[in-house]
Amino acid sequence: MSDTVESVGKVVGGTGPGGGNGRGNGARQLLVSSFGVFARQREATVLVVTVALLLYFAVSDASSFVSQVNAVDLLSEIMAPIAIIAIGEVLLLICGEIDISVGFIYTFAPIVMYVAITDYHVPSVLAVLLGLLTGVAAGWVNGFIVVTLRVPSFIATIGTGFALDGLALTIMHAEPEGIPPPSVSAGKWLGIPGNPWQWAPLVWAVVLVIVFHVVLTRTRWGLYTISAGSNLLGAREAGINVGRIKYGNFMICGFMGALVGVQTAFYTNNVDPSAGGYLPMFYAVIAAVIGGTAMLGGSGTILGAFLGAVVLATLTDGFDIIGISANPLPIIFGGAILVAMVANVQLARLRQAGRTL
Amino acid sequence: MTAQHQFPQATGGAGPAPDEVLRAEHISKRFGAVTALVDVTVRLSRGEVLGLIGDNGAGKSTLLKIFCGFQQPDSGRIVLNGEEVTLKSVMHARSLGIDVVYQDLALVNELSVYHNMFLNREEVRGPLLSNRLMRRIARDHLDEMGVHIPSVNVPVASLSGGQRQAIAVARAVFGNAKVLLLDEPLAAMGAKEVAMILDLIKDLKRRGDVSIIIIAHNYGQVLEICDRVNLLQHGEITLDKLSQDTSVQELNDIVVAEYRRALEERQRSA
């Protein structure tokens, strides 16, 4: 557990533009300057919040919180889905859009896979790919409605979300079904209970976060995504095909939704038309915003969203472990999100002041 | 530069003057019921700085948008380096060496100075950006142009208006622009910033490989920086003179007289 956080901390600390030029001689100077580099990272504030939360729960109930069973719960089952979908939402939020439907893509994708296996006898691995492709296709439809037909994404994706929800319920007759036993092994690399495959969702999340962090910060795609959200007209004037960028990010987000949907279906061995819904989208957007992504577009970080996902997962899991009863839990959860956000915003303000002074 | 070249008749067949870079002939443009440009002819010589002045709504911005390929004229033709061209888009115009720096600056505030300098022509190695290379080239280029900013790594948002304008101009020159269109580069700027931009334009003029059309409102600044001025009124060029042959007073008088005349006309018809 703490290993992961530490290594994340290193990654975060190491991404400074130009790195830290610790020109001083003494170790103290080096320490001060490396703290400076750390504090200048946008992810720094949420990292502080994350570590504080983890420590709080670890101290509150060490024996249960710091255990392998709970690490799987927290990281693979709760955190990974949030982090994976958050990648898609961060990209969309940065380029000035949002996908409300992603949770219903999550619902729908495993159903396509299930129908392909049971009704059309498609080989399992191919059916999994078909499920993932469904997400990409749904993302394309979102892109088409938003970019080509010019409907604001907030409304467009509410519409596609409803449609996918209805399709899911209709196809499954509103009944959940188990994954046919011969196909279960095809999904183990996506994550199924038991060692070592229970760690797969976490591995997927970490790998995807790293890949898309690089995409966002080190490739043209990332620059153009930021440009589209920060100065749409300017990006167009510079000759950037902004529509293509938005289409692409909707498709990435759709893929992420489908991936989590299919993963969850295998992990729970349940293709459930009432899984997903709005909640995965809200968690992902909250994780993105906690991690420092602007709701109005133009800026955001995927590492930050990953830490945001850890924060949300820690809150969900931690309160559960220290035994808060189910009814008042949302009060505390909501309050904790607000406290995390306020701390984040205020720390960022201090950081900004420190930079300009 | 011949200032008498006001409304050339039948220049169609005649070859261009050897130093001519851009010529727009008999350009007209209308938006529905509104006629933005009636019949405009503008010439620009190599290394020349031309000031385009006129009141709001006179058609300056429309003319600029036609020059940079953002809009297409209803009639008339554009001759670039002696060849007639149809500017299909901003990208197309840019590929031909005509670049525009807009009032609203097409810079991306959230990106660093060097990413902005390279926007849509990034240096890459495989799929990844060559940030170090771009940083170095951007720094060298800005130094060479005499644009002073704290660092090319800072986001553009943290720079002053004048610095951003300078970056936008430097970016266009860096992109190999031969004809530079500047839309109100001095608007809403402090004295120090204005001086900085004027210096930058003078420096470009001294080097002589870029020709510039500037839209501006301050006649004093226009006469200080431009070789020649064109006055645009109601979609027509009503004055074309070398800066040394005119004065702020004269330009003011023409514009004010026009305003009075229009006012009286309106009162008569009312």
What order do the helices and strands come in, and which of them pair?
The complex is a heterodimer of chains A (357) and B (270).
Chain A: H1 2-13, H2 27-40, H3 44-60, H4 62-65, H5 68-94, H6 102-118, H7 124-148, H8 153-171, H9 181-184, H10 200-218, H11 220-230, H12 232-237, H13 242-268, H14 279-290, H15 302-321, H16 329-356
Helix pairs in contact in A: 1-3, 3-15, 5-10, 5-11, 5-13, 5-14, 5-15, 6-7, 6-8, 6-13, 7-8, 7-13, 10-11, 11-13, 14-15, 15-16
Chain B: E1 20-31, E2 34-45, E3 49-53, H1 60-67, E4 75-80, E5 83-85, H2 90-95, E6 98-101, H3 113-117, E7 124-125, E8 128-129, H4 131-145, H5 161-174, E9 179-183, H6 191-207, E10 211-215, H7 219-225, E11 228-233, E12 236-242, H8 248-269
Parallel strand pairs in B: 3-10, 3-11, 6-9, 9-10
Antiparallel strand pairs in B: 1-2, 1-4, 4-5, 7-8, 11-12
Helix pairs in contact in B: 5-6
What does this structure look like?
The complex is a heterodimer of chains A (357) and B (270). Chain A is mainly α. Chain A has one domain: ABC transporter involved in vitamin B12 uptake, BtuC, CATH 1.10.3470. Chain A is built from 16 helices and no strands. The longest helix of chain A has 28 residues. Chain A is globular and about 70 Å long. The two termini of chain A are 37 Å apart. By secondary structure, chain B is α/β, with parallel strands linked by helices. Chain B has a domain of 182 residues: Rossmann fold. Helices cover 35% and strands 26% of the residues of chain B. A 6-stranded mixed beta sheet of chain B has the order 6-9-10-3-11-12, with helices on both faces. Chain B has a 4-stranded antiparallel beta sheet with strand order 2-1-4-5, covered by helices on one side. In chain B, strands 7-8 form a two-stranded antiparallel ribbon. In chain B, strand 11 and strand 12 form a beta hairpin. In chain B, helix 5 runs parallel beside helix 6. The N terminus of chain B is likely disordered. The chains are: A mainly alpha (357), B alpha/beta (270). At the A-B interface, helix 11 and helix 12 of A face helix 2 and strand 8 of B.
